[in-house]
Design brief:
The complex is a heterodimer of chains A (401) and B (267). Chain A is of the alpha+beta class. Chain A is built from 17 helices and ten strands. Chain B has a single domain, classed as Rossmann fold, CATH 3.40.50.300. Helix content of chain B is 35%, strand content 27%. Classes of the chains: A alpha+beta (401), B alpha/beta (267).
């Protein structure tokens, strides 16, 4: 152990209450930072998860817009009908190549080629418009988690068996095992079997969404092998911009959309929430720094006689200042450790409270970063007291006895 | 071989910028190896200023200071600090032990400063020194848990730990009672004889000055006389020193003694 460190520790120990108070002060600051930071992050995580947890993070579509195609193909013909079927988009013809390509990306957790279309369901005297998603059920399930959110029936979508939203089922008076008639834009009518109902916790999905086997949907809309979109989920939803940008470069003739583009408002809200959290954390660090600085400034004056003696005995300016740098560092470090303990305790108390819709999680990286910042702040705070200690005149200190 | 340890030439120390106070005025002196000297003089005559200069705690405004032929004024602050650590032992009037450390640790402090935290060998030496000053059984006592005399004896051990060439003491017995004063003085003298290091002691105490090898009298920032005690008869010496700390000299058993010892004078 260095001699300066030993002196620093003894100085801190001799001013026990002073040391204790400032450590408690730092600990409270660090605990608040950890709690607040984790709260905001978890809150945002839960919000984002609710918004995009069960939807496509990145969607790849054909670059060419179907609506323009309808206009171009103005005369009545097969194209018009097909265009209507694939509501807004032209199909991706080379989708399996694209799927192979993006599967290489390690960030990707789920890929679901989808053929999306609209149709009418006739029930009683009323027609109800529905959204049809033609999918490979197992792949779509990774994104939508349908099988774990079934209300009735079994999670199977193959052949003529389909899954429909629970609200839609209620509206139509259907239950698993029941049949429904689908009217296609071209006037065809198809009879389908309801295999089960699901609740995606989303009003519009529950009241209009229908999952169907992709092959069946392709036949229904007469699109050959085409799909309208490739829906993708990735490991870190916040990284979608860079991933999507990379794909835009690599894939030609397609449009790559990501959730962030479609949820600007949410992101603005999140970022202003984050910045207010950072502002609070910043000022907590400032007050920690001033707290430590003032304690050490007083300490230099209290210990000026001791420093004077140490200097008379040959302590250099550098050593004399290091004694206080060590104190700042140690105060920051001890306060941080106590603060981490207090913050994590606070989080577990909060998490064990009843009536919470989400639980707060914390990342050790973040906690350690906060501790490192507080320790650095302590060290920084000691600079001025340390300089005063370095410049203390030993004769003055000794004379004043 | 050259017997001179420390040599000051025309040492002048001034304070203040607009109104200049000369605390020390053209002082020239030589200190010899193994010499036990006292500086006496009235308050404010420049004794402490001279001691601070000789101990490299302060730099002279003018003049040269040579320690074993080495010029001190050309050294940097850091070099001077290292110089003090190796060559000078300080003993102050108010003991100035660090209350955060025990007696043994206080003795070890100069070694920590000079060469890092103690190894066993240096700790043994510190224990020997504490034994020498008669505090072997108080080693683990916190510094402020010792009497004034004991604290001063610890600070003597501390001054000796790095085997300095010169021990400077600024009124080392100034706030001790007469028994403790006697003990401390005897100790300093014993160390001087046994270990052979030079001592320079600022004192108001006639008894100490009288028993030194050499007396340096100061007044108004100058050395007014400088003599070996062996060259004077005891009576002459006693009379010369009387005005320095006695208000009421009286005759007792045919000897002039002080009727009332002055209490510790303020600086």
């Amino acid at each position: 152990m260095k001699f300066e460190l030993k002196v620093a520790l003894r100085f801190m120990r001799s001013g026990k209450s002073q040391t204790l108070f400032i450590i408690v002060g730092i600990a409270i600051g660090v605990a608040v930072q950890i709690f607040l930071g984790s709260l905001i992050t978890s809150l945002q995580g839960s919000l984002v998860d609710e918004t995009i947890g069960n939807s496509s993070h990145i969607t790849i579509r054909s670059e060419e817009d179907a609506t323009t195609r309808i206009l171009e193909a103005g005369e009545p013909g097969t194209l018009l009908l097909r265009g209507n079927a694939s509501t807004a988009q032209k199909e991706l013809d080379n989708w399996s190549l694209i799927v192979d390509e993006i599967r290489e990306d390690e960030a990707v957790t789920a890929i679901s080629p989808t053929l999306q279309g609209t149709a009418l369901v006739r029930s009683g005297g009323t027609d109800k418009s529905v959204q049809i998603k033609g999918v490979f059920f197992e792949q779509a399930d990774l994104i939508y988690e349908i099988s774990s959110r079934m209300v009735e029936g079994s999670p199977v979508a193959e052949g003529n068996t389909i899954l429909i939203g629970t609200k839609l089922a209620t509206d139509l008076g259907l239950r698993p095992g029941g049949n429904l008639n689908l009217l296609l834009p071209n006037g065809d009518s198809v009879r389908l079997l309801v295999g089960g109902t699901f609740d995606l916790q989303n009003e519009s999905a529950n009241s209009s969404l229908m999952f169907m086997d992709l092959r069946r949907a392709q036949k229904l809309f007469n699109t050959g092998d085409g799909v309208t979109a490739i829906e993708v989920q990735v490991e870190d939803p916040f990284a979608v911009d860079t991933i999507a940008d990379g794909w835009k470069q690599r894939l030609s003739g397609v449009k790559v959309e990501q959730w962030k583009e479609l949820n600007q408002q949410l992101l603005t809200a999140l970022s202003s929430q984050s910045s207010s959290s950072y502002t609070i954390q910043f000022f907590v660090i400032i007050s920690i720094t001033f707290g430590i600085a003032s304690v050490l400034a007083v300490s230099v004056i209290q210990k000026s006689k001791e420093i004077g003696i140490l200097k008379a005995m040959g302590t250099t300016k550098k050593s004399a200042s290091r004694i206080f740098i060590f104190q700042g560092l140690l105060l920051g470090l001890m306060g941080s450790i106590a603060g981490i303990a207090a913050g994590i305790l606070l989080l577990s108390v909060f998490n064990s409270a009843e009536g919470l819709t989400f639980s707060i999680t914390y990342s050790w990286a973040n906690v350690l970063l906060l501790a490192a910042i507080a320790t650095a702040a302590g060290t920084l705070a000691s600079v001025i007291p340390a300089r005063r200690s370095a410049n203390l005149n030993p004769m003055e200190a000794i004379k004043n006895g | 071989m050259d017997n001179i340890l420390l040599q000051g030439e025309n040492l002048t120390r001034e304070y203040g910028k607009e109104i200049i106070t000369k605390a020390l005025n053209e002082v020239t002196l030589k200190l010899n190896k193994s010499e036990f000297s006292s500086i006496i003089g009235p308050s404010g005559c420049g004794k402490s200023t001279l001691l601070n200069l000789l101990g490299a705690l302060d730099r002279p405004t003018r003049g040269r200071l040579l320690f074993q032929g080495r010029e001190l004024s050309s050294m940097s602050d850091g070099e001077l600090a290292a110089f003090r650590n190796r060559n000078i032992g300080f003993i102050f009037q108010f003991h100035h032990l660090l209350p955060e450390f025990n007696a043994l640790e206080n003795v070890l402090l100069p070694t920590w400063i000079g060469s890092g935290l103690a190894d066993r060998k240096r700790e043994e030496k510190a224990k020997e020194l504490l034994e020498l000053v008669g505090l072997k059984d108080r080693m683990k006592n916190p510094a402020n848990n010792l009497s004034g005399g004991q604290q001063q004896r610890v600070s003597i051990a501390r001054a000796l730990i790095n085997d300095p060439n010169l021990v400077l003491a600024d009124e080392p017995t100034g706030n001790l009672d007469s028994d403790a004063t006697e003990q401390v003085y005897d100790l300093l003298r014993k160390i001087n004889k046994e270990l052979g290091m030079s001592f320079l002691i600022v004192t108001h105490d006639r008894h100490i000055a009288e028993k030194s090898d050499r007396v340096i009298e100061m007044s108004d920032g100058r050395i007014v006389s400088d003599y070996k005690t062996a060259d004077k008869s005891p009576d002459e010496l006693w009379k010369r020193l009387a005005p320095h700390n006695c208000k009421f000299p009286v005759m007792e058993n045919g000897r002039l003694v002080c009727g009332m010892e002055e209490s510790a004078p303020a600086n």
